[in-house]
Amino acid sequence: MIDNTFAAIKGGFEPEDRNRALEASRFAVDTQRSTRLNKSKMITRTAAELLKAMVEYGLHNGYEQVVFITDARFEKILRFCGLSVERIGSDGSHQSVSTVAGRFPTDHQQLQRIARTCGLWEPSLCAPVIPGEALREGEQDVKAAVV
């Protein structure tokens, strides 16, 4: 979808292996019905759980990154959650950006950062990639805890 609908925004970016990149081009949360995380009024628990679930899903299914199209405000939310976001394109200048293309890796470090930043220590998916206890232990040997 990103290639066909948003080709101009993504610039010349091409994932090395398309079969190892998830695409995310739509993301909506009812902010009136979802509780805010204690740390900030910027993000809801539901949004943070969905982002964490994307990383868990990617890890579980062998994806290396999420490539996304969103607005600049949501890009800030991704960063607030601790994700290492790389902007790969936009539809305007930095001062007036409304739509951006970007990517973030689906790796253990990203999962750890979201858990720590948002306080989401329990798995978001039914079949967790990393048990909640392993997330709490820190980064020392998280890879050994993969189920």
From TrEMBL:
Pfam name, any one: Autoind_synth
SUPFAM superfamilies: Acyl-CoA N-acyltransferases (Nat)
PROSITE patterns reported in the protein's UniProt record: AUTOINDUCER_SYNTH_2
InterPro entries reported for this sequence: Acyl_CoA_acyltransferase, Autoind_synthase
Signal peptide as annotated in the record: none
Record's keyword terms, sorted: Autoinducer synthesis, Quorum sensing, S-adenosyl-L-methionine, Transferase
Biological process terms in GO annotation: quorum sensing; signal transduction
Gene3D superfamilies: 3.40.630.30
GO molecular function terms noted in the UniProt entry: transferase activity
Xref: PANTHER family: ACYL-HOMOSERINE-LACTONE SYNTHASE, ISOVALERYL-HOMOSERINE LACTONE SYNTHASE
Family: Belongs to the autoinducer synthase family.
Protein name: Autoinducer synthase
Origin species: Limimonas halophila
